[in-house]
Specification:
Elements: H1 14-20, H2 28-32, H3 35-39, H4 47-53, H5 60-76, H6 96-105, H7 121-134, H8 143-150, H9 170-183, H10 191-201, H11 218-230, H12 255-261, H13 279-292, H14 295-302, H15 305-314, H16 335-338, H17 342-350, H18 355-362, H19 372-382, H20 402-416, E1 417-421, E2 441-445, H21 448-454, H22 473-482
Antiparallel strand pairs: 1-2
The structure holds zinc ion.
Zinc ion binds next to loops.
Length: about 500
């Protein structure tokens, strides 16, 4: 069940709930509750509500959940501030300087333990660079170094491998392209070879493999369509693409249908048809569909939007406020992005299609599909590394790393800002043939009243992260200008 939104407060008569609790239940903790302090808390954090939601069934899962809750509760209530400085609402402020230092350090020579990450080198660059830009840092200083490091990873047959001498891989390729886009270094990409590489990943059923001989999954589809769109590669499959033998001519052929088959009985999205629903794959599916066409067209065409919405709302953890990656799993900061960033895409998918309807809809506030304040509280209170080291972490028992720092900050961006899709803008460029739906987004900051509800200060605001490509909005705008022409 989702964390209960503070805006739904009038639906609950909390005074009545308190009265109905037995006064002689032997619960000493209840006697100690500071009623006034409790009343200042968002509804979902109040003891009487938390108690109402607990069931009696004890399992290994419920014990693990209880452990996480016990760890998080003093941090969420700010009774333990972990020596982080506080904002006006007593929440920890975003330790901007320390996280910046942490991410810069992630781009320096790394300890020997990182040898295990050798096949994920572009990801290490992307997480640090994307995180820095979300903190408002200029990353162009890394352009040449990044290009030099990535040069040997770019294969003559197209695309980037995860490390030296490795096959090109759609995921590592995505990270390399985005890191280069953020630093302004995309000119080093061999676009024609990239087109051939991605063409060889397209499958007869419409999906994409992630690498030669590797698995076909939703990451492959999203990562491939990201590179195709940002680099303005032709949508037509290269002549050598094996999928042509099955009658396919375009990267888009059968793709929407294949993505639809990834939706599970739960309503969420799996890596591939028949697998388990997972928050990160929901983002990949929604973002991929938002590249292919306007979200209000492509998403309802391919997915059961209501079922997906219910599933996503169900993995916002009711006691910590962040998101879990799957049903009945523990909260984890990175899903602040993977699930938190789904909401802007879903809001656009649910928006009215016609210009006049969208004009009248824009006069209304966007629907409250999720609890932004709860995610912000979880990320600021529980996921910032205390002390001087900086960096953000999955949960308080975990160590910080660049991955969780990057996606915690992207999650903050999703929660703090409003992203709107222009339903009247063109969805493809008639001259180059490029898909342009993903370029029709704008962002605006929250109002002071919204920030007050979320207990978040303006000084904690991060930059606008593009809702589809997960790099700064400004970097996407630059890339659009950089490749106005197709390679054909
Ligand atoms: Zn995680």
């Amino acid at each position: 069940m989702a964390a209960i939104n503070s805006n739904s407060e009038p639906l609950f008569n909390t005074a009545r709930v308190i009265e109905e609790l037995p006064s002689d239940d032997g619960d000493d903790d209840y006697e100690d509750i500071d009623v006034q302090a409790e009343e200042k808390l968002p509804l979902w954090l109040r003891t009487e509500i938390v108690d109402l939601l607990n069931d009696e069934l004890e399992t290994a899962t419920s014990e693990a959940q209880e452990e996480v809750y016990d760890m998080c509760r003093p941090l969420l209530l700010c009774t333990d501030t972990q020596k982080l400085s506080s904002n006006q609402s007593s929440l920890p402020t975003l330790s901007r300087d320390r996280h910046t230092e942490f991410l810069h350090a992630a781009l320096k020579p790394l300890p020997s333990g990182y040898v295990a990450m050798d096949a994920s080198r572009p990801w290490l660059f992307y997480w640090a660079i994307c995180g820095l830009t979300t903190l408002g840092q200029d990353v162009t200083q890394y352009r040449e170094r990044l290009q030099e490091t990535l040069r040997p990873l770019q294969n003559p047959s197209g695309g980037f491998g995860g490390g030296h001498g490795q096959y090109s891989h759609c995921a590592g390729n995505y990270a390399a392209v985005l890191a280069l886009a953020a630093t302004g270094g995309l000119d080093m990409v061999n676009r024609e070879a990239m087109w051939h590489f991605l063409g060889s990943m397209k499958q007869a059923d419409g999906g994409f493999r992630v690498a030669q001989g590797a698995e076909e999954d939703i990451r492959g589809a999203y990562c491939a369509m990201t590179a195709i769109t940002l680099l303005n590669l032709p949508l037509t499959l290269p002549p050598s693409a094996p999928a042509r033998q099955a009658g396919l001519e375009s990267f888009l052929d059968r793709l929407g249908e294949w993505i639809g088959r990834c939706q599970t009985y739960e309503g969420g999205i799996a890596a591939a048809p028949g697998s388990e629903a997972h928050g990160a794959y929901a983002f990949c599916a929604l973002a991929c569909l938002s590249i292919m066409d306007a979200p209000h067209i492509s998403v309802p065409q391919c997915l059961d939007v209501r079922a997906l919405l219910a599933w996503l709302a169900g993995i916002q953890t009711r006691t910590e406020g962040g998101f879990a990656g799957r049903a009945n799993k523990l909260v984890d900061a990175c899903y602040g992005h993977w699930v938190g960033s789904c909401w802007a895409l879903l809001e656009a998918a649910l928006a009215p299609a016609s210009a006049s309807a969208s004009a009248s809809a824009s006069a209304r506030p966007p629907p409250n599909l999720w609890d932004r304040g709860a995610l912000i509280r979880y990320l600021l209170c529980c996921c910032q590394q205390p002390g001087r080291r900086g960096g953000m972490r999955d949960k308080p028992s975990a160590h910080p790393d660049a991955y969780h720092t990057c996606y915690s900050l992207a999650g903050l961006s999703a929660a703090q800002h409003h992203y709107s899709y222009d339903a009247d803008a063109a969805v493809h460029d008639t001259v180059s043939g490029r898909l342009t739906a993903a370029f029709n987004w704008t962002a605006r900051r929250a109002t002071p009243a919204e920030r007050a509800v979320w207990c978040c200060d303006e000084m904690d605001d991060v930059a606008f992260v593009h809702p589809v490509f997960v790099i700064p909005m400004a970097a996407v705008a630059r890339v659009v200008q950089q490749f106005p022409h197709s390679i054909l």
